TrEMBL record:
GO terms for biological process: DNA recombination; transposition. InterPro entries: Cas12f1-like_TNB (IPR010095), Transposase (IPR001959), Transposase_put_HTH (IPR021027). It holds the Pfam family Cas12f1-like_TNB. The keyword Protease does not apply. Residues 196-284 form the Probable transposase IS891/IS1136/IS1341 domain. Keywords: DNA recombination, DNA-binding, Metal-binding, Transposition, Zinc. It comes from Pseudoalteromonas nigrifaciens. Residues 299-361 form the Cas12f1-like TNB domain. This is Transposase. Residues 1-44 form the Transposase putative helix-turn-helix domain.
Length: 413
Protein backbone atom coordinates (compact mmCIF):
# COMPACT_ATOMS: atom_id res chain seq x y z
CA UNK A 1 0.00 0.00 0.00
CA UNK A 2 1.22 3.47 -0.88
CA UNK A 3 0.54 6.65 0.99
CA UNK A 4 1.01 10.24 -0.09
CA UNK A 5 2.97 12.23 2.44
CA UNK A 6 3.40 15.97 2.59
CA UNK A 7 6.52 17.62 3.96
CA UNK A 8 6.98 21.35 4.40
CA UNK A 9 10.29 23.09 3.76
CA UNK A 10 11.39 26.67 4.11
CA UNK A 11 12.46 28.52 0.94
CA UNK A 12 14.94 31.36 0.67
CA UNK A 13 14.25 32.88 -2.75
CA UNK A 14 16.45 35.59 -4.23
CA UNK A 15 14.67 38.95 -4.79
CA UNK A 16 14.15 38.13 -8.49
CA UNK A 17 12.78 34.71 -7.65
CA UNK A 18 10.57 36.18 -4.97
CA UNK A 19 9.05 38.56 -7.51
CA UNK A 20 8.40 35.58 -9.78
CA UNK A 21 6.80 33.60 -6.95
CA UNK A 22 4.53 36.51 -6.05
CA UNK A 23 3.60 36.92 -9.71
CA UNK A 24 2.84 33.23 -10.11
CA UNK A 25 0.74 33.17 -6.94
CA UNK A 26 -1.25 36.08 -8.33
CA UNK A 27 -1.57 34.32 -11.69
CA UNK A 28 -2.91 31.19 -10.03
CA UNK A 29 -5.42 33.34 -8.15
CA UNK A 30 -6.38 35.10 -11.39
CA UNK A 31 -6.96 31.80 -13.16
CA UNK A 32 -9.05 30.55 -10.24
CA UNK A 33 -11.22 33.69 -10.33
CA UNK A 34 -11.53 33.57 -14.11
CA UNK A 35 -12.58 29.93 -14.17
CA UNK A 36 -14.93 30.42 -11.23
CA UNK A 37 -16.66 33.35 -12.95
CA UNK A 38 -16.99 31.30 -16.09
CA UNK A 39 -18.55 28.47 -14.08
CA UNK A 40 -20.99 30.81 -12.36
CA UNK A 41 -22.01 32.31 -15.70
CA UNK A 42 -22.49 28.85 -17.15
CA UNK A 43 -24.55 27.77 -14.18
CA UNK A 44 -26.89 30.75 -14.46
CA UNK A 45 -27.29 30.09 -18.14
CA UNK A 46 -28.04 26.35 -18.26
CA UNK A 47 -27.44 24.95 -14.76
CA UNK A 48 -24.27 23.10 -15.76
CA UNK A 49 -20.68 23.34 -14.63
CA UNK A 50 -17.39 23.18 -16.43
CA UNK A 51 -15.33 20.36 -15.11
CA UNK A 52 -11.63 19.74 -15.36
CA UNK A 53 -11.40 18.79 -19.04
CA UNK A 54 -13.56 21.73 -20.14
CA UNK A 55 -11.59 24.15 -17.98
CA UNK A 56 -8.23 22.85 -19.23
CA UNK A 57 -9.28 23.26 -22.87
CA UNK A 58 -10.73 26.67 -22.11
CA UNK A 59 -7.34 27.74 -20.75
CA UNK A 60 -5.67 26.50 -23.90
CA UNK A 61 -8.17 28.39 -26.07
CA UNK A 62 -7.80 31.77 -24.39
CA UNK A 63 -4.01 31.71 -24.05
CA UNK A 64 -3.25 33.19 -27.51
CA UNK A 65 -5.45 36.26 -26.92
CA UNK A 66 -3.75 39.45 -25.95
CA UNK A 67 -5.66 40.08 -22.73
CA UNK A 68 -4.56 36.69 -21.43
CA UNK A 69 -0.81 37.01 -21.98
CA UNK A 70 -0.39 36.84 -18.19
CA UNK A 71 -1.37 33.17 -18.39
CA UNK A 72 1.30 32.52 -21.01
CA UNK A 73 4.24 33.21 -18.74
CA UNK A 74 2.83 30.80 -16.15
CA UNK A 75 3.71 27.12 -15.91
CA UNK A 76 0.93 25.36 -17.81
CA UNK A 77 0.94 22.29 -15.54
CA UNK A 78 0.42 24.59 -12.58
CA UNK A 79 -2.48 26.29 -14.38
CA UNK A 80 -4.08 22.89 -14.83
CA UNK A 81 -3.71 22.25 -11.09
CA UNK A 82 -5.81 25.34 -10.42
CA UNK A 83 -8.54 23.88 -12.63
CA UNK A 84 -8.27 20.60 -10.75
CA UNK A 85 -8.61 22.33 -7.37
CA UNK A 86 -11.62 24.29 -8.58
CA UNK A 87 -13.22 21.11 -9.85
CA UNK A 88 -12.76 19.49 -6.43
CA UNK A 89 -14.19 22.55 -4.71
CA UNK A 90 -17.22 22.59 -7.02
CA UNK A 91 -17.83 18.88 -6.57
CA UNK A 92 -17.59 19.20 -2.79
CA UNK A 93 -20.06 22.08 -2.82
CA UNK A 94 -22.70 20.38 -4.95
CA UNK A 95 -22.53 16.79 -3.72
CA UNK A 96 -24.96 16.06 -0.95
CA UNK A 97 -22.74 14.18 1.44
CA UNK A 98 -20.33 17.06 1.89
CA UNK A 99 -21.29 20.30 3.49
CA UNK A 100 -18.67 22.55 1.96
CA UNK A 101 -19.58 26.00 0.77
CA UNK A 102 -19.57 27.09 -2.82
CA UNK A 103 -16.07 28.24 -3.83
CA UNK A 104 -15.40 31.94 -3.57
CA UNK A 105 -13.37 34.41 -5.56
CA UNK A 106 -9.91 34.95 -4.10
CA UNK A 107 -9.09 38.42 -2.89
CA UNK A 108 -5.87 40.12 -3.92
CA UNK A 109 -2.95 40.73 -1.62
CA UNK A 110 -3.16 44.47 -2.05
CA UNK A 111 -6.69 44.55 -0.73
CA UNK A 112 -6.21 42.52 2.42
CA UNK A 113 -2.50 43.17 2.94
CA UNK A 114 -1.98 39.59 4.03
CA UNK A 115 -0.33 37.70 1.28
CA UNK A 116 -1.22 34.04 1.00
CA UNK A 117 -1.44 33.24 -2.68
CA UNK A 118 -0.09 29.87 -3.65
CA UNK A 119 0.48 27.73 -6.70
CA UNK A 120 1.25 24.08 -7.23
CA UNK A 121 3.72 22.70 -9.73
CA UNK A 122 3.70 19.09 -10.89
CA UNK A 123 6.80 16.98 -11.34
CA UNK A 124 6.44 16.04 -15.00
CA UNK A 125 9.47 14.24 -16.40
CA UNK A 126 11.62 15.17 -13.42
CA UNK A 127 11.30 18.93 -13.92
CA UNK A 128 11.27 19.40 -10.13
CA UNK A 129 14.57 18.34 -8.66
CA UNK A 130 16.50 18.96 -5.51
CA UNK A 131 20.21 19.58 -6.03
CA UNK A 132 22.90 21.57 -4.23
CA UNK A 133 20.53 23.01 -1.66
CA UNK A 134 18.06 24.26 -4.23
CA UNK A 135 14.77 23.10 -5.63
CA UNK A 136 14.10 23.68 -9.31
CA UNK A 137 10.60 25.01 -9.86
CA UNK A 138 9.37 25.26 -13.47
CA UNK A 139 9.72 28.78 -14.92
CA UNK A 140 11.15 30.10 -11.63
CA UNK A 141 14.52 28.38 -11.51
CA UNK A 142 16.64 26.99 -8.72
CA UNK A 143 15.27 28.33 -5.44
CA UNK A 144 17.39 27.84 -2.29
CA UNK A 145 15.65 25.44 0.06
CA UNK A 146 16.32 24.49 3.68
CA UNK A 147 16.29 20.72 3.50
CA UNK A 148 15.82 19.94 7.17
CA UNK A 149 15.02 16.34 6.34
CA UNK A 150 15.76 13.99 3.51
CA UNK A 151 13.14 13.29 0.89
CA UNK A 152 11.47 9.93 1.38
CA UNK A 153 10.95 9.23 -2.31
CA UNK A 154 10.26 10.87 -5.65
CA UNK A 155 8.58 14.28 -5.62
CA UNK A 156 5.01 14.35 -6.94
CA UNK A 157 4.01 17.99 -6.55
CA UNK A 158 5.32 21.17 -4.96
CA UNK A 159 3.07 23.88 -3.56
CA UNK A 160 4.72 27.24 -3.01
CA UNK A 161 3.14 29.64 -0.59
CA UNK A 162 3.97 32.71 1.44
CA UNK A 163 2.55 31.85 4.84
CA UNK A 164 2.74 33.70 8.11
CA UNK A 165 5.47 35.95 6.77
CA UNK A 166 7.72 33.24 5.33
CA UNK A 167 8.15 31.43 2.05
CA UNK A 168 7.58 27.73 2.23
CA UNK A 169 6.94 24.87 -0.10
CA UNK A 170 5.16 21.67 0.65
CA UNK A 171 6.33 18.64 -1.23
CA UNK A 172 4.14 15.60 -1.72
CA UNK A 173 5.74 12.22 -2.12
CA UNK A 174 4.48 8.70 -2.43
CA UNK A 175 5.79 6.36 0.23
CA UNK A 176 5.41 2.62 0.45
CA UNK A 177 3.97 1.35 3.77
CA UNK A 178 5.78 -1.41 5.62
CA UNK A 179 4.09 -4.79 5.45
CA UNK A 180 1.49 -5.21 8.15
CA UNK A 181 2.74 -6.69 11.39
CA UNK A 182 1.40 -10.19 11.80
CA UNK A 183 1.81 -10.35 15.52
CA UNK A 184 0.62 -7.37 17.48
CA UNK A 185 1.84 -7.42 21.01
CA UNK A 186 0.28 -4.37 22.60
CA UNK A 187 -3.09 -2.70 22.47
CA UNK A 188 -3.32 0.75 24.01
CA UNK A 189 -6.25 3.09 24.33
CA UNK A 190 -5.76 6.86 24.47
CA UNK A 191 -7.95 9.38 26.19
CA UNK A 192 -7.84 13.15 26.05
CA UNK A 193 -9.13 14.97 29.07
CA UNK A 194 -10.41 18.50 29.38
CA UNK A 195 -6.88 19.84 29.82
CA UNK A 196 -5.85 18.22 26.54
CA UNK A 197 -3.55 15.85 28.31
CA UNK A 198 -2.99 12.56 26.51
CA UNK A 199 -3.40 9.53 28.76
CA UNK A 200 -2.68 5.99 27.58
CA UNK A 201 -4.17 2.84 29.06
CA UNK A 202 -0.59 1.63 29.69
CA UNK A 203 0.03 4.56 32.02
CA UNK A 204 1.48 6.92 29.42
CA UNK A 205 0.88 10.62 30.13
CA UNK A 206 1.77 13.60 27.94
CA UNK A 207 0.87 17.08 29.09
CA UNK A 208 -0.25 19.89 26.90
CA UNK A 209 2.94 21.96 26.62
CA UNK A 210 3.24 25.27 28.47
CA UNK A 211 4.61 27.20 25.51
CA UNK A 212 1.27 26.79 23.77
CA UNK A 213 -0.56 28.45 26.64
CA UNK A 214 2.03 31.23 26.64
CA UNK A 215 1.66 31.85 22.91
CA UNK A 216 -2.10 31.85 23.27
CA UNK A 217 -1.94 34.47 26.03
CA UNK A 218 0.17 36.64 23.73
CA UNK A 219 -2.38 36.11 20.96
CA UNK A 220 -5.22 37.27 23.19
CA UNK A 221 -3.26 40.39 24.06
CA UNK A 222 -2.66 41.21 20.38
CA UNK A 223 -6.29 40.61 19.56
CA UNK A 224 -7.34 43.09 22.22
CA UNK A 225 -4.83 45.54 20.75
CA UNK A 226 -6.34 45.05 17.29
CA UNK A 227 -9.80 45.84 18.64
CA UNK A 228 -8.54 49.18 19.97
CA UNK A 229 -7.03 50.25 16.63
CA UNK A 230 -8.98 52.04 13.90
CA UNK A 231 -9.99 49.44 11.37
CA UNK A 232 -8.04 49.81 8.14
CA UNK A 233 -5.40 52.15 9.62
CA UNK A 234 -1.68 51.53 9.30
CA UNK A 235 -1.34 50.51 12.93
CA UNK A 236 -4.32 48.19 12.55
CA UNK A 237 -2.60 46.48 9.59
CA UNK A 238 0.63 46.21 11.56
CA UNK A 239 -1.08 44.49 14.47
CA UNK A 240 -2.88 42.20 12.06
CA UNK A 241 0.42 41.18 10.52
CA UNK A 242 1.84 40.44 13.96
CA UNK A 243 -1.21 38.30 14.74
CA UNK A 244 -0.73 36.47 11.47
CA UNK A 245 2.91 35.75 12.32
CA UNK A 246 1.98 34.54 15.78
CA UNK A 247 -0.66 32.23 14.32
CA UNK A 248 2.14 30.78 12.22
CA UNK A 249 4.30 30.24 15.29
CA UNK A 250 1.48 28.61 17.24
CA UNK A 251 0.61 26.28 14.40
CA UNK A 252 4.27 25.23 14.08
CA UNK A 253 4.48 24.62 17.83
CA UNK A 254 1.30 22.53 17.79
CA UNK A 255 2.48 20.52 14.83
CA UNK A 256 5.86 19.88 16.40
CA UNK A 257 4.29 18.74 19.67
CA UNK A 258 1.77 16.52 17.86
CA UNK A 259 4.56 14.95 15.77
CA UNK A 260 6.62 14.15 18.86
CA UNK A 261 3.72 12.57 20.75
CA UNK A 262 2.42 10.60 17.78
CA UNK A 263 5.93 9.36 16.96
CA UNK A 264 6.45 8.18 20.51
CA UNK A 265 3.13 6.38 20.86
CA UNK A 266 3.33 4.68 17.48
CA UNK A 267 6.85 3.50 18.23
CA UNK A 268 5.81 2.09 21.60
CA UNK A 269 2.51 0.42 20.67
CA UNK A 270 1.25 -2.00 18.04
CA UNK A 271 -2.49 -1.32 18.17
CA UNK A 272 -3.58 2.24 18.91
CA UNK A 273 -7.18 2.92 19.86
CA UNK A 274 -8.60 6.42 19.92
CA UNK A 275 -12.02 7.85 20.38
CA UNK A 276 -13.65 9.27 17.30
CA UNK A 277 -12.96 12.92 17.89
CA UNK A 278 -16.12 14.66 17.02
CA UNK A 279 -14.79 18.15 16.55
CA UNK A 280 -17.94 19.72 17.93
CA UNK A 281 -17.80 17.67 21.10
CA UNK A 282 -14.17 18.63 21.61
CA UNK A 283 -14.97 22.25 21.07
CA UNK A 284 -17.66 22.16 23.70
CA UNK A 285 -15.46 20.45 26.16
CA UNK A 286 -12.32 22.46 26.10
CA UNK A 287 -14.13 25.70 25.49
CA UNK A 288 -11.66 27.13 22.95
CA UNK A 289 -11.32 27.23 19.19
CA UNK A 290 -11.38 24.08 17.11
CA UNK A 291 -8.09 25.18 15.58
CA UNK A 292 -6.56 24.78 19.00
CA UNK A 293 -7.36 21.16 19.05
CA UNK A 294 -3.96 19.50 19.37
CA UNK A 295 -5.58 16.17 20.03
CA UNK A 296 -7.29 15.88 16.65
CA UNK A 297 -3.89 16.55 15.12
CA UNK A 298 -2.26 13.83 17.23
CA UNK A 299 -4.82 11.26 16.08
CA UNK A 300 -4.34 12.24 12.43
CA UNK A 301 -0.58 11.99 12.64
CA UNK A 302 -0.67 8.75 14.65
CA UNK A 303 -2.94 7.24 12.02
CA UNK A 304 -0.57 7.68 9.12
CA UNK A 305 2.49 6.86 11.21
CA UNK A 306 0.84 3.60 12.33
CA UNK A 307 -0.08 2.75 8.75
CA UNK A 308 3.44 3.46 7.51
CA UNK A 309 4.89 1.21 10.21
CA UNK A 310 2.46 -1.63 9.45
CA UNK A 311 0.69 -1.19 12.76
CA UNK A 312 -3.01 -0.85 13.50
CA UNK A 313 -4.90 2.35 14.18
CA UNK A 314 -8.51 2.12 15.30
CA UNK A 315 -11.16 4.65 16.23
CA UNK A 316 -14.04 3.52 18.36
CA UNK A 317 -17.58 4.75 17.66
CA UNK A 318 -18.36 8.32 18.49
CA UNK A 319 -21.11 7.48 20.90
CA UNK A 320 -19.23 5.01 23.03
CA UNK A 321 -18.89 6.71 26.36
CA UNK A 322 -15.51 6.32 27.96
CA UNK A 323 -15.34 8.93 30.70
CA UNK A 324 -16.66 7.68 34.01
CA UNK A 325 -16.69 4.03 33.02
CA UNK A 326 -15.06 1.56 35.36
CA UNK A 327 -12.46 -0.27 33.29
CA UNK A 328 -12.81 -3.35 35.52
CA UNK A 329 -16.55 -3.96 35.37
CA UNK A 330 -18.03 -1.45 32.90
CA UNK A 331 -20.18 0.40 35.45
CA UNK A 332 -21.15 3.93 34.37
CA UNK A 333 -20.58 6.88 36.69
CA UNK A 334 -21.59 10.49 36.28
CA UNK A 335 -18.54 12.65 36.94
CA UNK A 336 -18.07 16.39 37.02
CA UNK A 337 -15.03 18.02 35.41
CA UNK A 338 -13.33 18.24 38.80
CA UNK A 339 -13.63 14.56 39.70
CA UNK A 340 -10.15 13.28 38.92
CA UNK A 341 -10.72 9.99 40.74
CA UNK A 342 -13.72 7.86 41.58
CA UNK A 343 -14.52 4.66 43.42
CA UNK A 344 -16.57 2.24 41.41
CA UNK A 345 -20.03 1.77 42.96
CA UNK A 346 -20.30 -1.76 41.57
CA UNK A 347 -16.92 -3.34 42.24
CA UNK A 348 -15.34 -0.88 44.64
CA UNK A 349 -12.12 -0.37 42.67
CA UNK A 350 -10.43 2.99 43.12
CA UNK A 351 -10.08 4.48 39.64
CA UNK A 352 -8.14 7.36 38.12
CA UNK A 353 -10.63 9.06 35.83
CA UNK A 354 -8.35 9.42 32.77
CA UNK A 355 -6.63 6.08 33.12
CA UNK A 356 -9.94 4.29 33.50
CA UNK A 357 -11.29 6.06 30.42
CA UNK A 358 -8.19 5.09 28.41
CA UNK A 359 -8.52 1.50 29.56
CA UNK A 360 -12.16 1.29 28.56
CA UNK A 361 -11.24 2.78 25.16
CA UNK A 362 -8.69 -0.01 24.78
CA UNK A 363 -11.29 -2.62 25.82
CA UNK A 364 -13.90 -1.32 23.37
CA UNK A 365 -11.29 -1.15 20.63
CA UNK A 366 -10.26 -4.74 21.28
CA UNK A 367 -13.87 -5.97 21.08
CA UNK A 368 -14.46 -3.94 17.89
CA UNK A 369 -11.39 -5.29 16.14
CA UNK A 370 -12.11 -8.88 17.09
CA UNK A 371 -15.80 -8.57 16.14
CA UNK A 372 -14.83 -7.09 12.76
CA UNK A 373 -12.49 -10.03 12.20
CA UNK A 374 -9.45 -7.81 11.82
CA UNK A 375 -7.41 -9.38 14.59
CA UNK A 376 -7.68 -12.58 16.57
CA UNK A 377 -6.59 -13.02 20.13
CA UNK A 378 -3.83 -15.56 20.46
CA UNK A 379 -3.30 -17.31 23.76
CA UNK A 380 0.31 -17.29 24.76
CA UNK A 381 1.18 -20.92 25.38
CA UNK A 382 3.71 -20.59 28.14
CA UNK A 383 2.58 -20.27 31.74
CA UNK A 384 4.75 -17.26 32.32
CA UNK A 385 3.05 -15.21 29.61
CA UNK A 386 -0.40 -16.14 30.92
CA UNK A 387 0.60 -15.08 34.38
CA UNK A 388 1.72 -11.70 33.07
CA UNK A 389 -1.67 -11.26 31.40
CA UNK A 390 0.16 -10.27 28.28
CA UNK A 391 -2.16 -9.81 25.33
CA UNK A 392 -1.07 -10.99 21.93
CA UNK A 393 -3.04 -10.50 18.73
CA UNK A 394 -2.69 -11.76 15.26
CA UNK A 395 -3.82 -10.17 12.03
CA UNK A 396 -6.66 -12.42 10.94
CA UNK A 397 -5.86 -12.68 7.26
CA UNK A 398 -2.58 -14.28 8.17
CA UNK A 399 -4.15 -16.52 10.80
CA UNK A 400 -5.47 -18.81 8.05
CA UNK A 401 -2.11 -20.01 6.84
CA UNK A 402 -0.98 -22.34 9.60
CA UNK A 403 2.66 -22.31 8.57
CA UNK A 404 2.94 -18.60 9.02
CA UNK A 405 1.01 -18.80 12.25
CA UNK A 406 3.42 -21.29 13.75
CA UNK A 407 6.51 -19.37 12.81
CA UNK A 408 5.18 -16.07 14.07
CA UNK A 409 4.07 -17.60 17.34
CA UNK A 410 7.44 -19.17 17.80
CA UNK A 411 8.92 -15.76 17.36
CA UNK A 412 7.04 -14.21 20.28
CA UNK A 413 7.21 -17.02 22.82
ZN1 LIG B 1 -16.14 -1.38 38.66
Amino acid sequence: MKKTLRYNYRLNPTPEQEAKLIEFGATARGIWNLLLSENMRRYEFDKTFLFYNDMASLLKEIKPFEEFTWIKSFDSAAAQQVARDLETALKNAISKGRLQRFPKHKISYKKKKLHNDSFRAVNNSNCIRIEDGTISIPKVGKVPIILHRELASKIKTVTVQFRHGKWECSITQEVECKTALRVLKTITGFDINSKQTVVGSNGYVADNPKFLTQSKAKLNQLQRQLARRNKGSNRWHKTRQRINKLHGKISRQRLDFAHQISRQITNENDILVFEDLNVKAMQKFNGSMVADNVMALITQLSKYKAELAGKLYHEIGRFEKSTGICSECGQHHVLTLNDRHFICVACGVHQNRDLSAAKSIANTGELDLIAAGIVARVNPTSQRKAANKMKVFELSKFAVGSEKKRSSLAFIS
